[in-house]
Write a structure and sequence with these properties.
Elements lengths: L6 E5 L10 H9 L3 E3 L10 H6 L9 H13 L6 E5 L1 H12 L4 E5 L12 H11 L8 E2 L3 H7 L6 H11 L3 E2 L1 H7 L21 E6 L7 H9 L8 E6 L12 H14 L2
Parallel strand pairs: 1-2, 1-3, 3-4, 4-7, 7-8
Antiparallel strand pairs: 5-6
Helix pairs in contact: 3-4, 5-6, 6-7
């Protein structure tokens, strides 16, 4: 795979600001890519500004997020690599069947329609939103303690709290409700055509001890692609939780992804 000038679009997940990708941008630019990390519709330029205007994110859903990044992809001069984390990993899968991509990477992705496992850890991580149906029209922030369970369970309390202070933002509740009800609806924004061969190579990356998207959930999503002849690979990162793309070990994950990209023809 030729890296020179290939665009890379990073998509952050729920509750995390796009600035969490800044170290990745430096690494991928040094490797010859042309990386960008735009925020979701409603995100402000910084985490602090986004926290101060949560109403801008209220009501934003999966299709809104996918359409936003679809417009960005359409403006590029060549097909990009799309790398998404958490809810961004689900969006990356949607974009991989609706747009022409160079490759797609879904890191601890929120479950698409058809994923059946629902571990207790995942339910607890989602409870700050799903416990109140009215949150579907709101933006909800995680406390430091909630963040430690959902993201920082493999970290020290000090590191988790520092990451919460640096990157955490309110997240729209709507995408979580769309994911939670996907298997109960005939049509869903969380649905992806997993059988098509008309897509780019796809990599799943799973944190072994993730609470928000447990390893069994990521493996189940990967398994849905078994009837497609297009590439769908899986890497498990031992001992890592949902913060794996922006905590102290992010370089290990970035290196795994860059190595996989270099192997794709």
């Amino acid at each position: 795979m030729t890296t020179s000038g290939t665009p890379v679009v990073f998509i952050h997940g729920l509750w995390i600001h796009a600035s969490s990708w800044e170290p990745w941008i430096e690494v991928f630019r040094a490797a010859g890519y042309d990386p960008i990390a735009p925020g979701w519709p409603g995100d402000a330029a910084t985490a602090e500004e986004t926290r101060n205007a949560p109403e801008r994110l209220a009501g934003v859903g999966l299709d809104d997020i996918a359409a936003h990044y679809g417009e960005i992809i359409a403006s590029l001069d060549r097909p990009p690599v799309v790398i998404g984390h958490s809810m961004g990993g689900l969006v990356a899968q949607k974009l991989n069947v609706s747009h022409t991509l160079h490759a797609a990477v879904a890191v601890d992705p929120a479950p698409i329609k058809g994923v059946r496992p629902l571990p207790l850890a995942q339910l607890r991580s989602s409870a700050p939103v799903l416990s109140n149906p009215a949150n579907g029209k709101r933006a909800v922030a995680l406390t430091a303690a909630q963040f430690r369970y959902a993201f920082g369970n493999a970290l020290t309390v000090a590191e988790s709290d520092a990451l919460h202070a640096r990157y955490a933002i309110p997240g729209p509740g709507r995408p979580l409700f769309e994911v939670a009800t996907a298997n109960l609806r005939r049509t869903s924004p969380a649905a992806v055509d997993v059988r098509t061969a008309d897509r780019a190579p796809l990599l799943f990356v799973s944190g072994e001890v993730d609470h928000t998207v447990p390893d069994v959930v990521t493996r189940a999503a990967h398994g849905l692609y078994r009837d497609s002849s297009a590439v769908a690979d899986l890497i498990q990162v031992p001992g890592r939780g949902h913060s794996l793309v922006f905590d102290h070990g992010w370089k290990d994950v970035a290196g795994e992804i860059e190595t996989w990209l270099s192997r794709q023809a």
